[in-house]
Design a protein that fits this description.
Layout lengths: L5 H17 L7 H19 L11 H14 L5
Length: 78
Amino acid sequence: MLLYTEKQLDKAYRIDCKARTLSNEPWVIREDFRPLYENLLEAYMIAYSEDDILGADIPEYLINSVNDLLESTITLDT
């Protein structure tokens, strides 16, 4: 189970929307973004975790890393 706040999800969603706008790509609705965000968070947690932290609160540095990734490297398959 991943524990994150709705505020963290909203921030990441706004970043994603901005990146999509700059790439001239359509936005996804917020609830369709949620599983994308969760998958990305889980991948980061697994990659950066020395201990099993799944099920714990997500560390702020991982949230920031995911947001940075969304902001700088969004690529869409068309």
